[in-house]
Amino acid sequence: MSTRGGTRWRTFVQTETGSAVLLLVAVVAALLWANIDLHSYDAVWQAHFTVGFDTRHLSLTVHEWINAGLMSLFFFVVGLEARREFDMGELRDRRWVLLSAVAGLGSMVVPAVIYVAINAGHDSVHGWGTAMSTDTAFALGILAVLGRRLPASLRALMLSISVVDDVVALLVIAVFYSDEIHLPALFVALGALLAVVVVLRLADAGRGLFCALLAVVVWVALHEAGVDPVVTGLAVGALVIAYPAPRGDLERASRLFRLFREQPTPELQRSAARGLASAISPNERLEQRFLPWVSFGIVPLFALANAGIELSAARLADAFTSPVTLGILCGCVVGKIVGVVGSMAGAQLLSGRRLRPNVGWGSVTAAGSIAGAAFTVSLLIAAIAFEGEELNQARIGIIATLIGSFAVSWAVSGVIGLLPAARRTRALLGTSEPLTDLGVAVDERHDHVRGPADAAVTLVEYGDFECPYCGQAEGVVRDLLGSETDVRYVWRHLPLTDVHPNAQAAAEASEAAARQGRFWDMHDLLMDRQDELGERDLLRHARELGLDTEAFREDLARRRGARRVAEDVDSADLSGVSGTPTFFVNGRRHHGAFDIDALKRAVEQARRRAQAGG
């Protein structure tokens, strides 16, 4: 079953949504704690923790260990997600990489300029970096709360902007908010980072341990160099490649598991475990391992350690008249919208429309408003740039951006919802052609197609007649075809012979039936009787359908359908398909559940996009 990419601890989006909720809880807890007993709050986070021996030691406060140490793991996960989008997601289209970079930079420069304009003539002007960053967890959490008001494809845009945002923000920390740089230690850090690149290209055995040790060396060296070491996580994470599970690796894992099943020894158990792990890219393995800890542990702990502010009516009044708070709030909530929309519009105009967003301008505006949610990196920069009352004012401004961003995003999505249906679709989805994942386009003369030739939506399934998940999906597909009049369905073979011994013969039997013009009759019968795929069963099915059984038998014996099945398998390889069922909706791979509601949503969005493009 192909749900990888849609289910990383119940999917990345769901985890980020849960993390956003837990973040809010942590922020409220920090505020309550600080206002009940500020002395104990400060005492806990300012306590020192030392690692090392004698003169060779590193002594930091608990607050510093969290901000510079544990948060490196947060940016490591961000780096993994960025690399996966670059290798397998929207960023495979390098034009989108360029446009995302432009949008990300625009979404940072404009808020910084607004902050500088408000703080001009004040000492606080040096804190311009606090108004630049978008918090990924809160942004995706807001996006999830808005739900069906906005298209699912907006997540890719938000993630792309957030990745550029985080990269540039960490560079800003390293260049503008770090102490005097010590070059020898910096060269050690760069050398260790190059060693990580080399180790990642070597054999898998022991690679993870060596990379972890080298990452620690990079972190310590950057700290000694006077550069904020939190950048280590993003750099290392972005080096870890992502790729679809190759079918050859999956077949090897199946063979190893069967050996263990036949002889369950500790040696074969380790071999099978290594085979199963190696079938998945290191990028996905690492994210699956670290994402829950980061989302539900490190990030809320960071919020608890940084959001504690002693509040009072007088302090709030002072904050919201101070240039620091107003600069951050206006820079994020207003500047992000201007920066995202303006930079994308400028890129489209200057490129002659070669660079344009993969969503509509209404969605782009919503992305800008959602991007106004600042928290994690902004708090990091605030802790470096400010102290005393200015730090409290900065924290109040940062927390206020969460409320302001959500309110503006809700209003923007509400206004879009009031538009007439056609204009709303165009505003949300745009007219650009989406990136296509299907390696071989549908050919009416060659493919097995069910439904009208001029259908707005084409649903392609790579399936296996013996796969139980395909059997479950078959009912969903039939319900979908029965309720939709402008959907055509395409079946392509992908028999998983390493786990389903009868799948190849069943596929060839369906092709034998196709030679007599009865492919879909045989297809439906095989899917209904997945436990009856032996040779005698196939002949019985042919007689039941009234086929010429002698011709059918000869086609099976001579394996005349094998070449046709192999062509589908080759097309699956070109599309990066390794499991069944795998669906493509108008050429875009459908990740996640294949229940009727999920497929209907995917079909509806594809239909709306097709109508908007037309």
Provide an overview of this structure.
With 614 residues, the chain is mainly alpha-helical. 65% of the residues lie in helices and 6% in strands. It is built from 26 helices and 7 strands. The chain has a 5-stranded mixed beta sheet. α20 links the parallel β4 (457-463) and β5. α16 (361-370) runs antiparallel to α18. It is globular. The chain starts with 11 loop residues before the first helix and ends with a helix. Mean pLDDT is 85; it is low at 1-13.
User: Cα distance, first to last residue?
Assistant: 34 Å
Main sheet summary: 5 strands, mixed
Total of DSSP H or I helical runs spanning 4+ residues: 26
Helix-residue proportion: 55-70%
* Apparent shape: globular
Radius of gyration: 28 Å
Mean pLDDT: 85
Strand content: 5-15%
The tally of strands reads 7
**Main sheet: strand order:** 3-5-4-6-7
User: Which parts are unreliable, with pLDDT below 50 for 5 consecutive residues or more?
Assistant: 1-13
Oligomer: single chain
Quickly give the structural class.
mainly alpha
